[in-house]
Amino acid sequence: MTPERFKRLTTILQRRQLDLSVVMDKVHKGHNLSAVVRTCDAVGVFNVHAVVPDPCVRTSRYISSSAAKWVKLHRYNRITEAVTAVKQQNMRVYAAHLSDNARDFREIDFTQPCAIMLGTELFGVSDDGLDLADEHIVIPMLGMIDSLNVSVAAALILFEAQRQRLAAGFYDRQQLARADFDKTLFEWAHPKLAEFYTRKGLPYPPLDEEGEVIESSTHSQARLKGSY
C-alpha cells in the first residue's frame, strides 16, 4: 500500500453517496450486472440493491470479481425486499420505464435521496416493481428503437445524477459516518487483513496517515498465531 494509493482510496470514499442508489430488478446477464456496478463506482454510488433469484446465483459470483469490491452489493430474492430497503432510507424510487406518465429523466431532481430501478434486458421492470416505484422515468429517443441496453440506460441516468450533485457540492462533503468510513477504508486498503481480523473476531486496528496498520499487542499476538 503506497501513500498515493491510500490517499486516492480515502478521497474516493469521502465522495461516496449514501442517498443515491440503484435497484436492479432481475438484471441477470453477468456483463450487464458488471457494467452497471462499474458505473455506480464511477458515479460514487455506495450501495447497489440487486434482485438475484436462485437460478442466477452464478452471475452474483461473476460480478463479485469486478467493481463490486468498491461498491456494496445487497442481494434479494424479491423486488419488494429491495424497494423496502431503499424506502426505509427515505429514498424515492424512479423506475426506468416507458409509460404514459413517465417523465424525462433530466427533469428529476437527483439531489434528493433516490434510487434508480432498472429491469431485465428483455422485459424491463417487473409489474411489482412498477407498482412500488414512486415515479417512472424515460430517456427520450428519436429513432426506430425504443429502448437502450440496461447498462447504457443506467450510465445516462446516473451521470445526470452525478452532474446535478457535483453542481450542488454533494461530493465536497463526506456522507459516511466516521465508524463506517474507517471500517470500509480498512477493508479497501487491506482486504486480506480485514478478512483475517474478521475471522478471528477482532476489531480492525487503526491506520496511520499513510495507510499503515497501527497494531496493538492483541492484534500482534493474533497475527503471530495465525496466517492471513
Report what the structure shows:
The protein is α/β, with parallel strands linked by helices and 228 residues long. The protein folds into 2 domains: 1-15 and 176-228, no CATH class; 17-172, SPOUT methyltransferase, trefoil knot domain (Alpha/beta knot), CATH 3.40.1280.10. The protein has helices at residues 3-14, 30-43, 57-64, 79-87, 127-132, 150-167, 178-189, 191-200, 217-225, and strands at residues 20-25, 47-51, 72-76, 92-96, 103-104, 114-118, 135-138. A 7-stranded parallel beta sheet has the order 3-2-1-6-4-7-5, with helices on both faces. Strand 2, helix 3 (57-64) and strand 3 (72-76) form a beta-alpha-beta unit. The model has no long low-confidence stretch (mean pLDDT 90).
Give a brief outline of the structure:
With 228 residues, this protein is an alpha/beta fold. The chain has helices at 3-14, 30-43, 57-64, 79-87, 127-132, 150-167, 178-189, 191-200, 217-225; strands at residues 20-25, 47-51, 72-76, 92-96, 103-104, 114-118, 135-138. Residues 20-159 form the tRNA/rRNA methyltransferase SpoU type domain.
Secondary structure layout:
Elements: H1 3-14, E1 20-25, H2 30-43, E2 47-51, H3 57-64, E3 72-76, H4 79-87, E4 92-96, E5 103-104, E6 114-118, H5 127-132, E7 135-138, H6 150-167, H7 178-189, H8 191-200, H9 217-225
Parallel strand pairs: 1-2, 1-6, 2-3, 4-6, 4-7, 5-7
Helix pairs in contact: 1-7, 2-3, 2-6, 7-8
EC number: 2.1.1.34
Organism: hydrothermal vent metagenome
Protein name: tRNA (Guanosine(18)-2'-O)-methyltransferase
